[in-house]
Specification:
Elements: H1 2-10, H2 14-27, H3 32-47, H4 58-76, H5 82-94, H6 98-111, H7 118-130, H8 134-147, H9 153-164, H10 168-179, H11 184-190, H12 203-212, H13 216-225
Helix pairs in contact: 1-2, 2-3, 3-4, 3-5, 4-5, 5-6, 5-7, 6-7, 7-8, 7-9, 8-9, 9-10, 9-12, 10-11, 10-13
InterPro entries: TPR-like_helical_dom_sf, TPR_rpt
Protein name: Tetratricopeptide repeat protein
Length: about 230
């Protein structure tokens, strides 16, 4: 059953993956992996029916509450790791419980290996941006840039946190960094619209990115990066 659930997830059939993982947890309730993967599928399926910044109701709310319960079951069974706690943060964020989400992401970072830690750390930065703590968010973003310079999203996040702090010059410099390097032209094109952050970033972070793209100095850096 687990193999079929993984296969459904790989082909992006998340409803089928959810169904199979739920069945797996019913058959093997003491297997933490099943609960952890059920939580991931539930979160994806909930988010697919949500609107950015709008509190969930109905089926999405039920799925998110079930996802939180699933992460708790997985943790109780010894399956706590960075991925599980990052999933918990995602569920809490979709529920707009930002303080709790930030704490979950911080805990996820602590438990994550070096090749995964940038994901929960960037998510914590996004939660801090939603909590209107851009200076704290910037400290995390800069740490990502030092430890994982190939994590391109960090440069866009830096642009957004500098924008939130009223620094258009710093914003433009961050975009220039994003557009630099060997693959800079590709990343510059990808990050030239807000679409790249929709569905991934928190509402205030998305709004900051949407607004900074209107700044002339940022537009110039994007234009130069595409030459």
């Amino acid at each position: 059953m687990a193999q079929a659930a993984f296969a459904a997830f790989e082909r992006a059939d998340y409803l089928e993956s959810e169904r199979l993982w739920r069945a797996a947890t019913e058959q093997h309730p003491k297997e933490g992996l099943g609960w952890a993967n059920l939580a991931v599928a539930l979160i994806i399926n909930a988010s697919d029916k949500m609107t950015l910044g709008v509190l969930p109701t109905g089926e999405p709310l039920q799925r998110l509450e079930e996802a939180l319960s699933a992460t708790e079951r997985a943790e109780a069974l010894g399956a706590a790791d960075g991925i599980l706690l990052n999933s918990r943060g995602n569920a809490l964020g979709l529920l707009q419980r930002w303080g709790e989400a930030r704490a979950a992401y911080a805990a996820a970072t602590t438990l994550s290996p070096r090749d995964f830690e940038s994901i929960p750390r960037s998510n914590e930065a996004l939660a801090l941006m939603q909590l209107e703590e851009p200076a704290q968010a910037e400290a995390l973003v800069r740490r990502i840039m030092r430890r994982d310079p190939n994590f391109v999203d960090a440069f866009a996040l830096l642009a957004a946190v500098r924008w939130m702090q009223g620094d258009p010059g710093g914003t433009a410099r961050a975009i220039a960094q994003l557009c630099g390097g060997g693959d800079g032209r590709m990343w510059c094109a990808r990050y030239s619209t807000e679409q790249v952050v929709l569905g991934r970033w928190t509402p205030r972070a998305v709004e900051a990115y949407r607004e900074l793209l209107k700044e002339k100095s940022v537009q110039l850096e994007l234009k130069n990066g595409l030459i």
